[in-house]
Structure formats: C-alpha cells, structure tokens
Amino acid sequence: MADQSGPLAFFKAQHQAFAETLAARRGREDLIDGLLEQAFSSFEGNVEIQSEGLPPLACHKGCATCCTLRVTATAPEILMIARYIRWASAALKRAEIDLEQRIADADRATQGLSEEQRVALRRRCPFIANGVCVIYPVRPLACRGHASYDKRACVEAAAGRAGSVPFSAPHMTVRSLVQNAMQSALRDAGYAFGAYELNRAVSMALTDGNHHERWAAGDDVFADALVAEVSLDEMASTFDAIKAHP
Ligand code: SF4
After folding, report:
1. Of the candidates 166, 191, 180, which has an alpha carbon nearest to the alpha carbon of residue 243?
2. Whole-angstrom distance, CA of residue 174 vs CA of residue 195
3. Mutate to test the pocket of ligand 1, among 65, 134, 143, 196 (most ligand atoms within 8 A of CB)
4. Closest CA to 238 of 8, 4, 6, 3
5. What would the pLDDT profile of 90-114 be if each residue is shown by its tens digit?
6. Is 64 in the pocket of ligand 1 (CB under 6 A)?
7. DSSP letter string over 153-214?
8. What single DSSP character describes residue 58?
9. What is the pTM assigned to this prediction?
C-alpha cells in the first residue's frame, strides 16, 4: 500500500489484480491457488511495509491464545483448507488427530451462536492440536489479520476478564482491504462472494467432494454457513461505491 495511493487506491489495485487472476484461471483447477497466493502474499508484503517502525508483535508460532474466536473465511479459503486436510489426512491419522471429527464436534457446539456468544463459550478452535494450528500454511486471512502487541492482554481477554487487547492496526486494515477486494472481484466474476463461518463451512466441504466444481460453476455452496451481520447486498453496494470513487 504505497503512501501516496491510500486505502481506496489499494483496494482498486487489489480488485483489478484479483479480477485478472479470475479471468485467466476461469475453469481451471488452480483458480483458488492463484487467488490465495495473491491474497496471502499481498497481505504479508503490505503488512510488512505498513508495520515499519511499529513495536514487534507478541504473536508467535505455537501461541493459540486468541484461537477461541469465531473465524470467517471466503469460499476459496474454505476449499483450500478442505483440500489441505485431505492432503494431510495420512499424517493427521498417524498423529492420532481426527480433524474431521473435531471440526464436526465444534460445529455442533457453536452452530448459530453470535460472535459474543462464541467468545463467552471460550471453546478452542478445532484446528489446534498439540498447541499448534494444523492448517497454519493455509489459515484464513481472518486469522492472519488478528495480531497483538501484548500477550498478557490476550490471555486476560481469552479468560473472559475485561481489558482491551492492543491489536495491530496494519494487520486488521490490510486484511480487510485484501479480503474485501477479493470478495468484490469474485462477485463481479459471478462467484459466491460471502464470508462463511469456518467450522460449518469446512465441515460441509469435507462431507461433499463436489463443492469445488459447484462453487466454480457459480453456486453459493456454503450458503448455510453464511455470516450475515453484513448482508450481501450491503457488501455489494459498498464495493460498488468504492469502485465508483474517483
Ligand atoms: S484456524 Fe488456526 S490460526 Fe485460525 S483460529 Fe483456528 S487454530 Fe487459530
């Protein structure tokens, strides 16, 4: 995100790049790979630039203190996670991690709960095993964008004690801009562009191997897991307003 361009120009540039990837890879197996390589590398590169001069993060590999929050993800992210779980299934079995069962259990326990109810429940994300995120290489943008400067504050918040966590503004802002630009480009290209509750949607993707083909054909295959705080119509009009901005 160049200083002279600002968030709106960054959004538009990201949107254009996602649109080009969607056009070039339409109908191809590697469509979601292209989108997510772009999303993750854009996120990492721009967060690094925006974080220059800021204090170091308290987050580190193996810390899962905040992993009790509700996670949302786009359809390409969910499809990629499902593919990764299938690919890693032998290794997970050897480690005696029944990830599909964990996700199904978590889904049953959290289905229909609001974000606040999820925080109060303090149930750990099913993807944590032996203290680490087992889908770390393909974790969603939502997880990447949640970064803190103070571990103690995270522990207090996770225990339900009052206090605010000093989150990294560059992580939150860049995540939001990159994710929204991808969603906007998906919408323009005729793909389902919602944000979905992670456990429910991954559970759905794992129980039916046709989700990728159906999503690529334009079906909203994870509609049952749609997070509806902001409606698709509201999202669409926000995207249109940004794109129309000179
Ligand atoms: S997917 Fe991984 S990083 Fe995200 S909340 Fe779950 S364990 Fe944490």
Report:
1. 180
2. 17
3. 143
4. 8
5. 999 999 999 999 999 999 999 888 8
6. yes
7. HHHHHHTT------B-HHHHHHHHHHHHHHHHHHHHTTS----EEHHHHHHHHHH-TTHHHH
8. S
9. 0.93
